[in-house]
Design brief:
This protein is an alpha+beta fold and about 250 residues long. The chain has three helices and 18 strands. It folds into two domains: about 70 residues, OB fold (Dihydrolipoamide Acetyltransferase, E2P) (Beta Barrel); about 160 residues, 3-Layer(aba) Sandwich (Trna Endonuclease, Chain: A, domain 1). The longest helix is centred in the last third of the chain and has 15 residues. It starts with 8 loop residues before the first strand and ends with a strand.
Length: about 250
């Protein structure tokens, strides 16, 4: 079974609640004003810097998930940057890629069978997916992208030693004769291409270029984002306009 990229979507199970961000209090908690003026502490499912997504006064969209053991009944799902909604929940990028893998989206997951999540590849690391495909087992790492500069989506938004370690693991797998795929999921519609954020983390940018040269498959999927659903939309170029060294699906 195969499917197109645009056939993959995540529909929010219940309507999101619009609010206004008051502050990001700490890594996983923020304060928002809900309709009617009530202030609520909300869960922030994003450990990154969230530059451009967490400014005081931004419109946000929250899910209401009350339940035992939760510190807060609300989860921050989206921020509105200008005319574009941005998905800040990094878990949803993984969910979309998992759905795409199970659907056998061509060409990355053509002939896909078993899909496993959180696969240990060494004593140091796990990667997000292992997909049995018609071209053999494929190890997949997923990165959620929200940072923007002009028409460029950028990753990372802060120095990431963990991200660089994942690149090292993918290169080792490729050197051992296995398929290795890095997928950047751009969670906003208002960009045209992707590039590594060299000014923020030059070590990661350098490792990404080495991974591309080593044969690691690198692709960038852009999403359409709304308070109703998030849909995979299209593949966009990877690399700056004069230096498209990345993003070619092998």
């Amino acid at each position: 079974m195969t499917a197109s990229l645009a056939a993959v979507e995540y529909v929010f199970p219940s309507p999101l609640i619009r609010g206004v961000l008051l502050e990001r209090r700490q890594r996983f908690l923020a304060l928002a004003r809900l309709p009617g003026g009530r202030e609520e502490t909300v869960h922030c499912p994003n450990s990154g810097a969230m530059t451009g997504c967490a400014e005081e006064g931004m419109e946000v969209a929250l899910s209401h998930n009350p339940g035992p053991g939760r510190r807060t009944a609300y989860t921050w799902q989206l921020s509105r940057g200008g005319e574009s909604w941005i998905c800040v929940n990094t878990l949803l990028a993984n969910r979309l890629v998992m759905t795409a893998a199970r659907a056998g989206v061509d060409p990355w997951f053509q002939g896909a069978g078993l899909v496993r999540g959180e696969v240990r590849v060494s004593g140091r690391s796990r990667l997000d997916l292992l997909v049995e495909t018609g071209r053999g087992p494929c190890y997949v790492e997923v990165k959620s992208v929200t940072l923007k500069e002009g028409n460029l989506a950028l990753f990372p938004d802060a120095v990431t030693s963990r991200g660089k370690r994942h690149l090292d693991e993918l290169m080792e797998l490729k050197a051992a004769g296995k398929r290795a795929l890095l997928l950047f999921v751009v969670n906003r519609q208002d960009v045209e291409r992707f590039a590594p954020a060299e000014a923020i983390d030059p070590a990661y940018a350098g490792a990404l270029a080495r991974a591309a040269r080593a044969g690691v498959e690198i692709a960038v999927w852009q999403c359409r984002v709304s308070p109703e659903k998030i849909s995979l939309w299209r593949e966009i170029p990877c690399g700056k306009e004069k230096d498209l060294i990345l993003g070619q699906t092998n």
